[in-house]
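Hello, quick one for you while I still have it in my head. My current little project is about how a certain protein chain folds up. You're getting the sequence in one-letter code plus the fold written as tokens. Would you mind checking whether the tokens look sensible for this chain? Here's the protein in full, and shout if anything looks odd to you:
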Amino acid sequence: MKKILIVGGGIGGMTAAACLLRAGFEVQVFEQASELGEVGAGIQLSANPMRVLDHLGLVDRLAALGVRPTAYQFKMFDTGEVLQEIPLGDGYVERHGVPYLSVHRADLLDSLIGAVRALDGAAVRLNAKVVDYREDGEGVSLQLADGSEVRGDVLIGADGIKSLVRAKILGETPVHYTGDQSWRILVPAERLAPEMRPDTVNICVGPGKHGVVYPIRPNGLINMVGCVEYETWDDESWTARRPWQEMKADFAGWHENIQAIIDHADKDQCYRWAMNNRSPVDNWRTARTTLLGDAAHPTLPYMAQGGGMAIEDGAVIARALQQEDDVGEALELYQRNRLERTARIVNESSANRNMFHLPSEAALREAFAQRDMNAERTAWLFSYDPITVELR
């Protein structure tokens, strides 16, 4: 039985761990933090990652913790006019077999942690900072900050956008500031008038900026992310706080629903970070080491698929290691089956940024009139099943 070492206890690492444990592998996850947890933010789970979560038996739990939005709507920033809509709700389940959910990232991670610990209560090591690793013909050795060493057959770097494992495989890779900085706030729905509480995922588009608003808990917690063009580069950390007044000024003139959400945010809980882009790479593995999630293919959030790709990766790598006994062949099979799809999502997310920020209402209307977002995403994005797709 192969021993799989995973660096990083986030959504991608925990999905991989759960899928690998279910497949019969020995797994150890190394997380440098003293406790497992996610920063406060929402995540959208479309059919493609939901099929993996269904495989892990988590759909009912997540459906109870999260929200099933009725639609995914693209709206004009100032009037709220719906430019285009992707139907969700019950019809989405009929078409895809699983619901479309919006949830708190902490609730998703907690559910995945529960799945891992139910399979192996000793699989996760906390306060376990990996400082280096080395490969040889027989396996991989991890060096931890406390001086200890751990040996395994395969290493998966699921350690995020500033991945130590990625740096060893790829060296320094170019980072391009997109020109955007992203605001994030969470607002309890009871602070809003009933008519101001969204039951849809709203993508509000406008000149030089766009906003994403959706509910993430049944009690009505509202998530808002607002991407605004700034000439200067700022921090890339999700936990960098900025003055509420700056966010209010950035969205002056926007629809009253957006104003209400901003007005009712906690004034000391407004976060803003730089949106940096990294081009897709054509290799993220060595003989016994590979990457998944943001460590492999960091993406802008303009398709709501960053977490989805990490979840897909976790299922596919488990299947590849089952399908091929030779470690090198398994890692090559995994990579071969993920490169094209993840690159497409990275590139289309970048293209969406430009579309959402077109300089006039006329240009925005024309752009959305030329595309059928529901048909596009159904054809190749939502239809993908990481649990059954043929790996070749």
